[in-house]
Amino acid sequence: MIKKISPLAPKNFPKIPKVKGVDLGTARSGVKYKGRSDIFTAIFDKGTTVAGSFTQSKITAEPVDFCRKNIADGNARALVVNAGFANAFTGAKGKKINKSIAVNVKKILKCREKDIFICSTGVIGEQIPLRPTNKAISQSLKESGSNWKQSSKAITTTDTFSKASGRKITIDGHEVSIAGIAKGSGMISPNMATMLAFIFTDAAIDSRVLQTLLNLELRNSFNAITVDSDTSTNDTVLVFATGKAMDHGNVKPISRTGDPRLIEFRKAFKEIMHDLAIQIVKDGEGASKLIHVKVSGAENSSAAKKIARSIADSPLVKTAIGASDPNWGRIIMAMGKARESIQSTKVSLKIGKNLILKNGEVSRSYSEAKTKKYMKGSEILIDIELGLANGDSDIWTCDLTEGYIRINADYRS
Question: For residues 74 and 115, is the Cβ–Cβ distance under 8 A?
């Protein structure tokens, strides 16, 4: 099946800085995708710290269980990713396959197994063909490069474009790089992370501080997106910090969250996470529009998020937007089904700058024609004020089109 690139895709692949202490590699196993790489590896210098977040699904893939166990140590030497097979719900054989991959990597790099991180994405229930996969992993680990475009392409499945983001900052007079890649297009409604996302930096940051930063920034990035309300068995975000940009003289690693050197780092880290998350929504299966749902004035932030997500996940809302139909009754319906406190007489609703409801009634200035014209655009804002308190939340999603059905009906063909 030939993929049509999302109309929301960026025009060019972004310029991503080289991260010191990280060697990237890719390879073709040939078992799922013909003529393209489906294996991605990253080798880290000794001393690299790691933090992560994983799916909240009660059914987890073997690689997720493996990474959860290894993340406790806070150290990393290698990341291995295969695309095409999720290694989820694969029983004892799936566990053995994951173990075999880990042993293969351990032998090549002569490192501890607990410093290896394995991620998989693809079809649930299918076994990874072990021999060609391990062969490709071995080949990938022998490479020594920094090709972010090739690496981000290798981890894709139904994605129509490669997703990456990067920044450069200065810490203690030294240039520090931060780079991230991600994959995701469908089965996107994480409550922790996304399908797969990996962020790399050559800053020197303690693993506990790195974990705190990740937890803080998830809320408004990977936790604030949805394509189809479905949470994957494999959702994973991993962050690696090699420390090589700060490996000079008396420069001390960042070991506490109150360190002022984190201010600029956190700003860049936040931007990268948000950028990657939005790129995933822009590549939503069959998507033609990016939708920003903004809820303010709720009883608290939790209530605001539930209401915003209810709207963003509604097939009726998403299909109406796909058709540029200002059927605001569907938005009201989705608000109500969240079962959070709402007083109808205090609700105001805008689509873009078009005021539709004010204090629970249709605005005298409302123009359906102007609203419909606005909705023909590629980026849509649904802005709701509940007038109860100060709770607010932002969720990003995409429209629902026939393309989503075609892609998922043909997924295993």
Answer: no
pLDDT at residue 1, rounded to an integer: 46
Distance, CA of 14 to CA of 28 (rounded, Å): 24
Contacts of 233 (CB under 8 A, 6+ apart): 55, 57, 59, 60, 61, 64, 86, 88, 89, 124
- Please check whether residue 119 is in contact with residue 79, taking contact to mean a CB–CB distance below 8 angstroms: yes
Q: What is the pLDDT of residues 30-83, one digit of tens each?
A: 999 989 999 999 999 999 999 999 998 899 999 999 999 999 999 999 999 999
Question: Which residues are CB-contacts of 374 (< 8 A; sequence separation ≥ 6)?
Answer: 351, 352, 353, 354, 380
Query: Bridge partners of 198?
Result: 181, 238
The whole-chain average pLDDT of the chain stands at: 94
192 has pLDDT over 50: yes
Cα–Cα distance for residue pair 387/379, rounded to 1 Å: 25
DSSP 253: P
Indicate if the pLDDT at residue 160 is higher than 60: yes
- Strand-pairing partners, residue 240, are 50, 200
Cα dist. 85→63, 357, 411 in Å? Answer: 11, 47, 12
194 catalytic per annotation: yes
Residue 193, pLDDT score = 57
The catalytically annotated residue of 55, 194, 231, 401 is 194
Q: Which residue has 């075609």 as its token pair?
A: 406
What is the C-alpha separation between 15 and 164, in angstroms, rounded? 9
Statement: residue 248 has pLDDT above 80: no
Q: Answer for the pair 156, 149: CB distance below 8 angstroms, yes or no.
A: no
182 forms beta bridges with: 163, 197
